[in-house]
Amino acid sequence: MLVAGGGGDLWAKTVDVWWKYEKAARFAGPAKGKGTALRPKEVSGWIAHARCGGPVPAIVDVYSFASKWWTWWVEINPKWRTRTDGVATRLRKEGEGDWSSVASTGPNGMLNILVCLRWWYDALKGDEGGMEGWKEALEDVNWALERISKSSPS
After folding, report:
1. For the purposes of burial, counting CB atoms within 10 Å of the CB of 23, is it exposed (0-12), middle (13-18) or buried (19 or more)?
2. Which of 14, 28, 41, 89 is most deeply buried (CB count within 10 A of its CB)?
């Protein structure tokens, strides 16, 4: 699913960074994921259907899904990344700090974040207007993953 065509070079790079991070952790993960209260409901359904073996949820309203994804992503990110300028869905891309609120490996970790990004991308069906928001989200996840993987023991 994550290596399906499309998404561009940054998508491929992000998946590669994530894969190396998971491999360094020996694909182990916590028994429970982080921040499920605000997680898009589609993720819960996907998990209940055995993830990759189950059906991909239909994203009926891609813009609503994107908004829910941002709310969840902001919630599970470290508080030091939160912006105070009124832009609730955008996080700081500067500084360093503790990543434990989001740095999870295994099936309940960053995999869920990336799968949601993939669903979002696929649901856009080439809609250039919506693609800008997806690219911004991907850039942020890539930025975070690169820092998480550097701060984690390998």
Report:
1. exposed
2. 14
